[in-house]
Design a protein that fits this description.
Blueprint lengths: L6 H4 L5 H4 L7 E2 L4 E6 L4 E6 L2 H4 L4 H4 L10 H12 L7 E5 L2 E9 L5 E7 L6 H14 L6 H16 L3 E7 L5 E8 L10 E2 L6 H10 L1 E4 L7 E4 L18 H9 L4 E9 L2 E10 L7 H46 L3 H6 L13 E6 L2 E6 L4 H10 L8 E4 L18 E7 L4 E7 L5 E5 L6 E4 L2 E4 L7 E5 L9 H29 L1
Antiparallel strand pairs: 1-11, 2-3, 2-6, 3-11, 4-5, 5-6, 7-8, 7-13, 8-9, 10-12, 12-13, 14-15, 14-18, 16-17, 17-18, 19-22, 20-21
This protein binds biliverdine IX alpha.
C-alpha cells in the first residue's frame, strides 16, 4: 500500500485549494443569468445556459446579437455612454417573461463587460430601507468592546435578513479563523469559539472577498449553468454577483448540511479581518439591495473597529511612552545601562504587558520577573534570535523555532526581542502560555495526498467539535507592543551612541 506522508512530513505549503482558479469558473448560479459582452462592438459574447428558462432566449439566440435583443435602445445607449465616460455603472430594473429582474453591469479588471441578471426579489420601501441603514449606524457602537460590537453586527444581520445562523468569523495571522460572535436559531448547536483551519477558505477565495465584499450562494443543491460558448480567453468573474461555486466548497457546505449562505467581508486597513458568515438550512435568496446593505453594515462595522483599534493603539503607546521617557532619564543619569533598565522602577519590562524579561549584554544575562533560567534564555538567543535577519523579533510560540522551549512554556511561550545596533545586546520580553486547548469545528488534520509537491485536500466530512491539546502558545504581541519595543530600541541606541561620543571627546 502506498502510504502518503503527512503535510508536516512533506513540508508542503501549496494546496490544490490555493490553486483552484475559482475566478474563471465560467458558470452561473441557477437563480440568474450571466452575459459577457464585447461593448466596443455591442455584441453578446456569452450567455449562461439558464437564459432560456429565465429570459426566454437560449444562449444560441443571444450570442452574436447586440444588447438591444434584451434591453431597450435607451438603456443600452445610457450604459455605453457611462462606460465611455468611465462613470459608475448602476443596476437597472428589467422584466422578462412577466418577471422583474435587476440587470447589474460591471467591467472586469481587463475591461470586459459582464451583466448579471437576477430576480429583483422583494421590494423594500425607501422608508424601510432608510430605517435599516439608520439602525446599522446607530446600533454598532465603537464605545463597546469588540466582542459586543461583533454581536451587534451579527444580530442586526439576523434580524434584517433571517438567516438561521449568523457568525462573525475572525482570521488570525495565519488565516485560521474563529467564530467570535454568533446568533442562531435555538435548535442549532452553537459554534461560538470554534476554530477552522486556513485551508477551509483558500487564498483565491479570500482575495476575491477583498474585491467583491459580499457573496450569496442561494441554493447549495443548484444546477450550475455554464457559459456558452466556451471562449479561448476565459472571462474573470471575480466581481460577478452570480459566479458559480467551486464544487469543493459545495461539498463542504453539503457536509455541513447548509442549504444557502451569505458571506460578507470585513476589511480592516486594506486586509481581510474577518467574514460575516450566514447559513440557512433551506435555499435562500436576498436581493441585490439587501446584499448591498450587508456590505454597508460590514463597512460601518470595520470603520468603527478601525477607530477603536487606533484609539487602543494610541492609549497603549501613550502609556508606554511615559515609561520610555522615565527609562531614558535613568539611562542618562546612571552610567551602567543594564542597571538603569533593570534595577530601578520602572524597569524595561514595565513598558509592555509581559510576565518577565531578560537583558543580554556582553555575554551577561540579567533576568527580571518570571523567566526561564539563564541557560535557557541564552539558548533562545543563540538558537533563535541571533539567526533572525531583522532587529525586532516576535513570536507567540517560541517552541516553533526551538523545540526544547516546550520545557518552559509557563514562563516564556511568547518572546518579543530587540537587538541594539551592532552590539551583541538584546532585550527580551516573555509571556507565558495562554491556553492549553483549541476547539476546532471538525478535526482539521484532513485526509489527503501529495502529488508533484502539491497537497491535495478534501473538505471534512464531520464538523463535530474536536478538542486539540496545545501547549506553548501565548497571547499574541500587539502592534503597540512591537512599536513600544522598537521605540525603546531607538532610545537605547541614541543613548549609547551619545555616550560613546562623549567618551571619545573626553579622551581627546
Ligand atoms: C470558500 N470557505 C469558503 C467560504 C467560506 C468558507 C466562508 C467563502 C464562501 C463564499 O464564497 O460564499 C469556510 N464557512 C467557512 C468556515 C465556516 C463557514 C470556516 O461557515 C465556519 C463557520 N474548502 C475546504 C477545502 C478546500 C476548500 C479542503 O475545506 C480546498 C481543497 C475550498 N472554500 C474552498 C473554495 C472556496 C471556499 C475553493 C471558494 C468557493 C467559491 O468562491 O467558489
Amino acid at each position: 500500500m502506498n502510504i502518503t506522508p503527512t503535510p508536516q512530513q512533506q513540508n508542503v505549503d501549496i494546496t490544490n485549494c490555493d490553486r483552484e482558479p475559482i475566478h474563471i469558473i465560467e458558470q452561473s448560479q441557477q437563480h440568474g443569468v450571466i452575459l459577457t459582452v464585447n461593448y466596443q462592438e455591442n455584441k453578446i459574447l456569452q450567455a449562461s445556459s439558464n437564459a432560456i428558462n429565465l429570459l426566454g432566449f437560449s444562449p444560441q439566440e443571444l450570442v452574436g446579437n447586440p444588447l438591444e435583443k434584451l434591453f431597450s435602445e435607451e438603456e443600452v445607449r445610457t450604459l455605453f455612454s457611462k462606460i465611455e465616460a468611465k462613470q459608475n455603472l448602476y443596476p437597472r430594473e428589467v422584466s422578462f417573461k412577466n418577471q422583474q429582474y435587476l440587470a447589474i453591469p460591471h467591467l472586469t479588471e481587463d475591461e470586459k463587460l459582464v451583466i448579471d441578471i437576477e430576480p429583483f426579489g422583494e421590494t423594500l420601501s425607501p422608508i424601510l430601507f432608510q430605517e435599516e441603514l439608520t439602525k446599522i449606524l446607530k446600533e454598532i457602537k465603537d464605545t463597546d468592546p469588540v466582542k459586543v460590537m461583533c454581536h451587534q453586527a451579527v444580530s442586526l444581520i439576523k434580524d434584517l435578513y433571517g438567516y438561521d445562523r449568523v457568525m462573525m468569523y475572525h482570521f488570525d495571522e495565519e488565516w485560521n479563523g474563529e467564530v467570535i460572535a454568533e446568533v442562531k436559531e435555538e435548535n442549532l448547536e452553537s459554534w461560538l469559539g470554534l476554530h477552522y483551519p486556513a485551508t477551509d477558505i483558500p487564498k483565491p477565495a479570500r482575495q476575491i472577498f477583498l474585491k467583491q465584499g459580499v457573496r450569496m450562494i442561494s441554493d447549495v443543491n443548484y444546477q450550475p449553468a455554464p457559459l456558452f460558448p466556451e471562449l479561448k480567453e476565459k472571462i474573470n468573474l471575480s466581481k460577478s454577483e452570480l459566479r458559480g461555486v467551486s464544487p469543493i466548497h459545495i461539498e463542504y457546505l453539503k457536509n455541513m448540511n447548509v442549504g444557502a449562505s451569505l458571506t460578507v467581508a470585513v476589511i480592516l486597513n486594506g486586509d481581510l479581518w474577518g467574514l460575516i458568515a450566514c447559513h440557512h438550512y433551506q435555499p435562500k435568496f436576498i436581493n441585490y439591495h439587501q446584499r448591498q446593505s450587508c456590505k454597508f453594515l460590514a463597512q460601518v462595522f470595520s470603520n468603527k473597529l478601525a477607530l477603536k483599534e487606533s484609539n487602543t493603539f494610541l492609549e497603549n503607546i501613550n502609556s508606554s511612552e511615559k515609561i520610555r521617557k522615565q527609562l531614558l532619564i535613568q539611562m542618562n543619569s546612571i552610567s551602567n545601562f543594564t542597571q538603569a533598565l533593570t534595577k530601578f522602577s520602572p524597569k524595561f519590562t514595565d513598558l509592555i504587558n509581559c510576565s518577565g524579561g531578560a537583558l543580554f549584554n556582553e555575554n551577561e544575562i540579567t533576568l527580571v520577573g518570571k523567566t526561564p533560567t539563564e541557560k535557557q534564555v541564552k539558548k533562545i538567543i543563540n538558537k533563535v534570535i541571533k539567526k533572525q535577519s531583522g532587529s525586532v523579533f516576535q513570536t507567540k510560540q517560541i517552541s516553533r523555532y526551538y523545540e526544547k522551549a516546550q520545557n518552559f512554556t509557563a514562563t516564556a511561550s511568547g518572546v518579543l526581542s530587540i537587538k541594539i545596533s551592532n552590539e551583541e545586546t538584546y532585550l527580551l520580553w516573555f509571556r507565558p502560555e495562554a491556553s492549553t486547548t483549541v476547539d476546532w469545528g471538525g478535526n482539521p488534520e484532513k485526509q489527503g495526498y501529495v502529488k508533484d509537491g502539491v497537497q491535495f485536500l478534501h473538505p471534512r466530512k464531520s464538523f463535530e467539535r474536536w478538542t486539540q491539546k496545545v501547549s506553548g502558545i501565548a497571547n499574541a504581541w500587539e502592534s503597540y507592543d512591537i512599536e513600544a519595543a522598537s521605540n525603546l530600541q531607538d532610545t537605547i541606541t541614541h543613548v549609547l551612541v551619545r555616550k560613546q561620543k562623549d567618551e571619545i571627546k573626553n579622551l581627546n
